[in-house]
Amino acid sequence: MSALYALLFIAATIIFVGGLYIKIRQYYDTPAPLVIPTMPAPRTEKGVAFRLFREVVLFESLFKSNKWIWLFGWMFHVALALVLMRHLRYFTQPVWDWVVLIQPFGKYAGFAMVIGLLGLWARRILVERIRYITGPSDHLMLALLVAIGLSGLGMKFVAHTDIVALKAFFIGLRNFSLQPLPNDPLLLIHLFLVFALMVIFPFSKLLHAPGVFFSPTRNQTDSSREKRHLAPWAAELEK
After folding, report:
1. Which domain holds residue 56?
2. Tens digit of each residue's pLDDT (9 = 90 or more) over 112-129
3. Rounded to two decimals, what is the model's pTM?
4. Which is nearest to 38 in space by CA: 64, 70, 66?
């Protein structure tokens, strides 16, 4: 079982990192032939950076659009960030000081993460215009995330696993030394679901995470008054 999960983890990591690199490279290489920032737009690059910061950290546009969806969405993403940072203790030795400090917050952030997900899932069922554009893949993705959150909470508060052995397993993989993985059913389910998410991530709607940085409606300055924006193909015609 340890060897199987080691192989699954390595394969999932390769697919996740490789797929993410390919998609980000595609985003980077895709030309933006028109200046189309969403107004009101900043007129300087510093203003664009500050706008992206507000969008990524505070979900500014969603807050302006719909407050209750913003609440569940922001709750889920902040809780997820805390949970992920808390899990760094399984991959580092010694554990970084700031990771130690956030352990109590990350432990209960799992509840906020699941509540946020359930709220976003309810939105896809109860809001007619959102339900109309919701496909089976959207429900399956939300179900996968909820299952990961619930299985993680189950290991923390219901059926505890050997976290020392679990950490030894992942540290061993980092050092190319296979260590035994605890044979707890809930842990195996949790890890399998996480590996599945890693494989699916580069090919799913979850790519909005890196994609927001490449959105021309967000990363462009409102410079149409200062300079003429000329697409490469149009410049060739003027030569």
Report:
1. 2-22+41-219
2. 999 999 999 999 999 999
3. 0.88
4. 64
Sequence letter at residue 145: L
How much is the average pLDDT of 48-70?
Answer: 93
**Which two three-digit tokens encode residue 23?**
């998609």
How many Cα atoms are found within 13 Å in the side-chain-facing hemisphere of 185? 2
| Number of domains, the chain | 1
Q: Could you tell me the CATH number of the domain that includes residue 53? A: 1.20.950.20
Contacts made by residues 37-42, CB under 8 angstroms, sequence distance 24+? 37/216, 37/217, 37/218, 37/220, 37/221, 37/222, 38/217, 38/218, 39/222, 40/222, 41/220, 41/221, 41/222, 42/221, 42/222
Residue 225 covered by a domain: no
Separation CA 182–CA 169 (nearest Å) = 9
Instruction: Give per-residue pLDDT as tens, 68-77.
Output: 999 999 999 9
Q: What is the DSSP letter of 93?
A: S
